[in-house]
Every structure is written in C-alpha cells, then in structure tokens.
Design brief:
The protein is α/β, with parallel strands linked by helices and 313 residues long. The chain contains 10 helices and 12 strands. A 5-stranded mixed sheet has the order 3-2-1-4-5, with helices on both faces. The chain has a 5-stranded mixed sheet with strand order 8-7-6-11-12. It has a two-stranded antiparallel ribbon with strand order 9-10.
Length: 313
C-alpha cells in the first residue's frame, strides 16, 4: 500500500493506493467570507491541524510499501511554497517510523498523475503528451515526457502571462458573493445565464493574457449585469482562451494525447468547448481539484521503477 500526502494552498489531502484503487480524504482550508485567499502562515497552521486528523481518520490495516509527498509546486529550481513543508515533514516522519521509503515530487506532477489515473491512462507515462494544468495559481500547458528519475518531466510550452484561470474564477465569484474557492458554484450559476458576449482571446505567440477578463467583469458589475450572465462570461472567456491555446499548440507540436488537470478543468463549459473539437482526457472532478491521489500513484511508480530499473506499464 502506498500513502500520498499533499498540503497545497487550499486543501489538505491524503490518499492510499494499492496499485489498482485509490482511496482519498481531503479537507478544504477555511477562507473567511469575502476574502480571495490565504496567507501562507494561515495555510501552514491549518494543514498542521488537518493532517493528523485525516491520518487518524483513515481506515488502514496492513503494511505500508512507501510514502509519496508533494514538496513544491513544480519540478523546477526555485519552486517553493511554505505550505508544502507540513506534508513533507509528516511524510518523512511516517517513512521513518514505518521503515519505508519516502518519495518526493511536485504538486503539478501529482495533478497530472491523478488525471491519468482518473481516465485510466497511466500508460501515457511511457510517451509524450500535452497536459493542461488549470488552477488558482496556474494556467499552463505542458509538454510531458517520460523520465527515469521523476517518472514524468513537465516542460511549460504555453501559459498565461498575467491573470490565471482560477484567479479569474475566484475573484469573480467573491465579487458575486460566492464562497471561496468559487469554481463549482460559479459553474452552476453560469448554467442559468440568458445572454452571451463577444470575446476574442489575447495572445502573444502561444501565451495568453487574461487580465482583460477581470477588467470586463468589473464593468459588467457596474452596469448591473446579472450574476448568472457574469458567471457565464468568465467561464466562456476561459474556455475560448484554452481552446485557442490548444489550437496553437497542436499547430506547432502536432497531434498527441491531451490531458486536463487542476480544479478549473472541472468546469462543464470548458469540457464541452474543448471536446467539441478535440478528443481530450478530463479527470473526474474529485481528481481534478487538489488531491493526494497522484502523489500516492507517484510513490507506487517510483517504488516499482526503482525495483525494476525501468518504467513499465
């Protein structure tokens, strides 16, 4: 059995993976009404309280093979957030106490592997594919390639140069009085819209700019537009921007499997818009948002890779 731990910006998560099935538990961090996020010190405190509770509440009997933990946002130099230290210290404590190996990876790799698990395509770790990571702090398209040491290597090939998709969703939601994080509620609200808007995505080569979305939302609010129509405007803008980014990427890199991960990938309009033109893989909502499932899968793959000295299906 493999234990995964992820202490991201807004969710404390653990997961167990037996090589076939994932069982996971999560607890959202508390954000005060009307606020758009948490200070890292507050996130660290809440993770420190939440993680032991989740571990104590986990029904597990048997032996542990290894522990996996996300220790940084991305697998690049300088990638760091204090909130991941809570998971890291707890993972190493569990590893030491149980006499098992501890494998460290990034939050982003965890997202990608969770998506692959969700759509039953873990075999894609053996080939190149495109992964979109759309969340509160990330709007990136990644060229993912097999890697002996890291299982997969993710290289940014396109991204938002300013506002991220999740920021556009959450900032709009807070303005409309929704609870943070706002993705699911904004999605439901947008489905009641009775008006559509013209929108042309802004790009510089493969990279997009989303700051104009926030400016337009402020104007729509000032003009008295309905919350439902504003919610639709934001989700439609994000969907059209991602679709254009995908077109530019495939024009440059050619056809290859496309996988979507991150909380924004749960949006119903985004899925519909993309799947009308591309046969993309979208993780189910419980594996799209922050979770430790992909980190547990990573521990399994690393343990198996270290034992066989090769990446196998």
């Amino acid at each position: 059995m493999y234990l995964g731990i992820d202490t991201s910006n807004y969710t404390t998560s653990i997961a167990l993976f037996d090589g076939e099935k994932v069982v996971q538990k999560k607890k959202l961090l508390t954000v005060k009404k009307g606020e758009r996020g948490l200070r890292q010190s507050d996130a660290v405190f809440q993770h420190t309280v939440n993680l032991p509770e989740l571990l104590n509440d986990t029904d597990f009997s048997g032996s542990l093979d290894a522990v996996g933990v996300s220790t940084r946002p991305r697998n690049i130099d300088g990638s760091y957030m204090p909130c991941f230290l809570v998971g890291q210290t707890n993972a190493h404590a569990v590893s030491k106490f149980t006499g098992t190996k501890c494998f460290e990876t990034s939050h982003q790799v965890g997202h990608i592997l969770a998506a692959l698990y969700s759509v039953e395509r873990l075999d894609l770790i053996n080939q190149n594919f495109i992964a979109f990571h759309l969340s509160g702090g990330t709007t990136e398209a990644l060229l993912v390639t097999p890697d002996k040491n890291e299982i997969i290597k993710a290289e940014i090939i396109a991204q938002s140069l300013d506002l991220k998709a999740g920021q556009a969703v959450d900032r709009t939601g807070v303005l409309l009085g929704l609870d943070f994080p706002c993705g699911a509620e904004l999605d439901r609200l947008s489905q009641k819209a009775d008006k559509k808007f013209d929108f042309r995505p802004s790009f510089k080569n493969l990279d997009c700019s989303m700051s104009g979305i926030e400016n337009k939302v402020s104007k729509l609010l000032a003009d008295g537009e309905s919350p439902e129509n504003i919610a639709y405007f934001v989700t439609d803008c994000i969907s059209k921007t991602v679709l254009e980014m995908l077109k530019r990427i495939t024009d440059k890199y050619g056809d290859m499997p496309i996988v979507f991960s991150g909380g924004v990938s749960s949006n119903s309009l985004l899925r519909k818009t993309v799947n009308e033109k591309y046969n993309a893989y979208f993780a189910s909502p419980e594996f799209s948002c922050d979770n430790a499932a992909g980190v547990a899968v990573y521990a399994y793959l690393k343990d198996r890779n270290d034992s066989t000295h090769s990446i196998t299906d």
